[in-house]
Amino acid sequence: xxxxxxxxxxxxxxxxxxxxxxxxxxxxxxxxxxxxxxxxxxxxxxxxxxxxxxxxxxxxxxxxxxxxxxxxxxxxxxxxxxxxxxxxxxxxxxxxxxxxxxxxxxxxxxxxxxxxxxxxxxxxxxxxxxxxxxxxxxx
Length: 139
Hints:
Radius of gyration: 15 Å
Number of helices: 1
Pfam families: Cupin_2
InterPro entries: Cupin_2, GPI/OXD, RmlC-like_jellyroll, RmlC_Cupin_sf
Keywords: Metal-binding
GO molecular function, one term: metal ion binding
Domain Cupin type-2: 57-126
C-alpha cells in the first residue's frame, strides 16, 4: 500500500502478537556484530494493511543486550517500557528507563545498551511505510 492511499483502522489482537516469532539480525560471520537485540514488528505495510508508519517492540536481554551504533534516513522515536539503558545519540550518552521518550533525528548515529538487571524493552516508530525501507548503516 503506497503512502497517501486511504487506509482503514487496524487492530492486532494480543493472541496474534504472542504467536509471532521475534526477529533479529541475520547471523553473518563476515560482518561485525550488530548487537544482541530482538524485535517484533507490529505495523509495517509489508505485513499489515497500513501506511506512513512502521512500529514495533524491541528487547535487549540483561547482561549482553545492546544495539550497536547505526544510522538510517528516517527519524525514529523510542518509548522505553521496561528496564534501564544507556542510549547514545551522536556521541552523547543518555540514561533511559520506563517512561523515557526519545526522538532520534534522521541520520543521527545512535545505539542503546542494557545496563539493568532485567530486560530492556522499548516501543519504536519510524516514518516509513515498511520496516524493509529502513536501511541500517552500522558504524
